[in-house]
Every structure is written in C-alpha cells, then in structure tokens.
C-alpha cells in the first residue's frame, strides 16, 4: 500500500451543485482550480419528443426526476432509483450529470494521506485492506464499486448520454468496463455531460428498483437493482436487470435475463434466474455476502414484476 498520496497537479474540476466535490475539497482529496458552471435551457428539465422519447438535461436535479409524474409513469424504475438515493436535502441539489460523474466513495480514495490508483498511485490499497463494502465482481485493478445509482438505472433503460463534445454514448462508453482502475469515467479533460436520452417505453412494461443497505436511511447501497419487464400471456417477453454496488461499473445481469426471456413467469423460473444473477461473480474475501443480497433482491423484484 502506498503510504502517502501521489503529489501531482490537479486539473480544474467543474462545479454545479457540488454535493460530491465539496466533500472532496473539505477532506483535501481535491485541491485544484474550479470552473463554476450553470444550467441553460437545453441542459435542464424534461424534454419530451412526439414519439415518446425523453431527453433529460444534465443539470436537472435528482429530486425533480423523482417527483416528475410523467417520467414516473413512463420510466418508473428511473424515478424510483432517484427517490431511493441519498437524502432529500442532497436530492434537491444534486444533478443527474453530477451523479453520473461523481468520484469513488472508497475510504482509501477519500483519505488524502493514502495513495491509490484513482489518485495516480501504483496500487489499490482496498484489495489487501478493508474492502467490506467493495466489489463482488472483480473486473479490474480497482475494487471500489461505482457509486452512481442513476447510472445503474440508466443502464437498465439503455440510455444514451450526450456531452458538449460527443453524443450517443452508452453507460458503458461513459464508465468503461471496469478494467481501468485509474479513472471513474471516460470523460476527457474539460468535457461535460449535457443530457441523457431514453427511448420510448415498451408497451406493457413495468419497472421496479430496490436496494439493500446497512441501515434504514441515507446509506450507500450494498447492492441495488433496477428491473424492467414485459410479462404477457403469463411469460416474460422482455427482461432487463441492471445492478449497482457490486462492481467497478454498473452491470447488466445478462445470464439472469437470458434465463427468463420467453419463459413462463413461474416461481421456479424466477428462482433459477435469481441464482443466475451472480454468474461470473468473483467476490473478494470480505464481499461474498453481496452475492446472497444480489440473488435476494433480484428474486424479490422479479416476483413483484410477475405478479
């Protein structure tokens, strides 16, 4: 483990609401210059297209997403995810773009006196240290789970992200596949998220969100899942399961999805799919418990969607 943080000149950071940035500056993790940014009509609010698509400005607050009735009717999993994260005070300030671009919550990263990969160091101290809340799918050198609840929900909805330089980015394009332990996202220096676009919802689809946490309120999730499904004639015609809190990036639970696609919405089929939710998992010595949580959350959501 590197005993002290690597000395380097930090690039300027954008500040909108600053809910994450302010904490990092208080701790001394972020010390570089700031660029204050503000919303424009194109980067805030809900913009509905005639065909049912929705574009959400990146400056839209999490509270506004959680409270929008039309959005909740069309994308209930996204609205529930927004309502479930953080506290009311934070949701009223935090923005969608900021939630996607926030930095790691790992306690080693957040300690200004400890070096790590995400601060330019040579290793991940959590791997050999205390990683109780870290990944259960070990995909790369950094074992901190990605902190964005909205990213997991948007992955379930196959959302596309636009920046001031690029458009049509998937969540995978924005956040990577977990193999790069040195970065929280693939944004270039000075690049800013401007909006998120969602396709029109499928006919008859339902969606739910659930998280497992270590206390009743205001806690980062140990495991969280956003689930979408179309159940018609007693069978799953469409299934999407996206999970957070378990890997360096949000993950689609493809094996579980494939197990249910076209299958009867029975208790047996759902139980099998829940077991498949952990396919490919590589837990750390202290994170095996997350696999039980993941299976339980997936089974609960699927049973509710099938009811």
Can you give a write-up of this model?
With 307 residues, the chain is of the alpha+beta class. The protein has a domain at 206-306: 2-Layer Sandwich (Enolase-like, domain 1). The chain is built from twelve helices and ten strands. The chain has helices spanning 21-27, 62-67, 69-74, 76-84, 88-91, 96-101, 125-128, 149-156, 171-175, 254-260, 267-276, 289-306; strands at residues 13-15, 34-36, 46-48, 54-57, 160-163, 193-198, 206-212, 223-232, 235-244, 251-252. The chain has a four-stranded antiparallel beta sheet with strand order 3-4-6-5. Strands 7-8-9-10 form a four-stranded antiparallel beta sheet. A two-stranded parallel sheet has the order 1-2. β3 and β4 (54-57) form a beta hairpin. The radius of gyration is 19 Å and the shape is globular. Residues 1-8 have low confidence and may be disordered.
Q: Which features would summarize this protein structure in a list?
A:
single chain, 307 residues, alpha+beta, Enolase-like, domain 1, four-stranded antiparallel sheet, 12 helices, 29% helix, 17% strand, disordered N terminus
Q: For the record, what is the CATH homologous superfamily label of the domain at 206-306?
A: CO dehydrogenase flavoprotein, C-terminal domain
Mean pLDDT over the residues: 94
Portion of residues in helices? Answer: 25-40%
The main sheet orders its strands as 3-4-6-5
Which segments are poorly predicted (pLDDT under 50) over 5 or more consecutive residues?
A: 1-8
């Amino acid at each position: 483990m590197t005993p002290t943080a690597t000395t380097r000149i930090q690039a300027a950071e954008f500040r909108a609401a600053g809910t994450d940035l302010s904490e990092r500056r208080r701790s001394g993790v972020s010390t570089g210059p700031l660029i204050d940014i503000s919303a424009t009509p194109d980067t805030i609010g809900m913009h509905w297209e005639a065909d049912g698509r929705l574009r959400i400005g990146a400056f839209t607050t999490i509270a506004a997403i959680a409270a929008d009735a039309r959005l909740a009717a069309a994308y209930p999993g996204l609205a529930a995810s927004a309502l479930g994260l953080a506290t009311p005070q934070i949701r009223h300030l935090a923005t969608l773009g900021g939630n996607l671009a926030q930095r790691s919550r790992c306690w080693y990263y957040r300690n200004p006196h400890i070096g790590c990969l995400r601060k330019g160091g040579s290793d991940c101290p959590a791997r050999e240290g205390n990683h109780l809340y870290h990944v259960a799918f070990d995909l790369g050198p950094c074992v901190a789970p990605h902190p964005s609840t909205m990213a997991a929900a948007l992955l379930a909805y196959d959302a596309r992200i636009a920046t001031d330089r690029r458009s049509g980015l998937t969540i995978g394009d924005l956040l990577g596949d977990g193999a790069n332990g040195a970065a929280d996202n693939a944004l270039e220096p000075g690049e800013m998220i401007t909006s998120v676009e969602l396709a029109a919802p499928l006919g008859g689809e339902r969606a739910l969100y659930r998280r497992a946490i270590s206390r009743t309120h205001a806690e980062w999730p140990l495991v969280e899942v956003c689930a979408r499904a179309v159940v018609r004639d007693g069978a799953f015609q469409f299934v999407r399961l996206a999970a957070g809190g378990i890997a360096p990036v949000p993950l689609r639970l493809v094996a579980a999805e494939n197990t249910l696609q076209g299958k009867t919405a029975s208790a047996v089929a759902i139980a099998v799919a829940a077991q498949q939710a952990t396919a490919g998992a590589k837990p750390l010595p202290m994170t095996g418990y997350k696999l039980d949580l993941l299976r339980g959350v997936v089974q609960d959501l699927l049973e509710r969607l099938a009811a």
